[in-house]
Amino acid sequence: MLAKKSATYEDLQALPPHVVGEILDGELVVSPRPASLHATAASRLGMEIGGPFDRGRGGPGGWIILDEPELHLVGQVMVPDLAGWRRERMPEIPDVSFFELAPDWVCEILSPATVTVDRTRKMRHYADAGVRHLWLVDPRIKTLEVYRLDGGSWRVVATHGGDAPARAEPFDAIELDLASLWSR
């Protein structure tokens, strides 16, 4: 039996532009670019949070929120749909291709192509990297799951569903319009 070759960053860079590539546990994981439900939820959530927290419009500010940043953490290369750093930890966005400072919050928008990897391998690696908050958003069933890192393990803090407005840590200073995430 031949030993499996570990994926390299060169393997990742060789991928075509219509896919998202990550390296998890030495394996090149390739997913299609997000479909419309996924992209809509990610874009609108970024706007909901970015205004009050990144830009300080109608909210407390104090965060840097980015779409699909490439993270190099705990020996993995991961690309969450959204990520946020508290400004006291990252005062400015560095001019880099990828980030080695773990975010304070990540959000994965679940889709049929990514749900298994997002819920298993990536959640574990985010915990190992010390990410404090994780959201899993499923636009197909209209849910937001909110997790907090507690002693190295994820603890469910809240689950929100449907069109009801919600407050979700660490952005609970504002009410999120969940209905906007699912509307077409």
Describe the structure.
The protein has 184 residues and is α+β, with helices and mostly antiparallel strands. 24% of the residues lie in helices and 30% in strands. It contains 4 helices and 10 strands, in the order αββαβββββαβββα. The chain has helices spanning 9-13, 36-54, 115-129, 178-182; strands at residues 19-24, 27-32, 63-67, 71-73, 76-78, 82-86, 105-109, 133-138, 143-150, 153-161. The strands form 3 sheets. It has a 6-stranded mixed β-sheet, sandwiched between helices. A two-stranded antiparallel ribbon has the order 1-2. The chain has a two-stranded antiparallel ribbon with strand order 4-5. The mean pLDDT is 94.
Summarize the structure.
The chain is of the alpha+beta class and 184 residues long.
Low-pLDDT residue intervals, each spanning 5 or more residues: none
Series of H and E elements: HEEHEEEEEHEEEH
Mean pLDDT over the residues = 94
Going by helix content, strand content and strand pairing, the class is alpha+beta
Counted by DSSP, the helix tally is 4
Task: Give the N-terminus to C-terminus distance in angstroms.
Answer: 50 Å
| Fraction of residues in helix | 10-25%
Oligomer designation: single chain
Query: What's the number of extended β-strand segments?
Result: 10
Features:
184 residues, alpha+beta, 6-stranded mixed beta sheet, two-stranded antiparallel ribbon, 4 helices, 24% helix, globular
Describe how the helices and strands are arranged.
Elements: H1 9-13, E1 19-24, E2 27-32, H2 36-54, E3 63-67, E4 71-73, E5 76-78, E6 82-86, E7 105-109, H3 115-129, E8 133-138, E9 143-150, E10 153-161, H4 178-182
Parallel strand pairs: 7-8
Antiparallel strand pairs: 1-2, 3-6, 4-5, 6-7, 8-9, 9-10
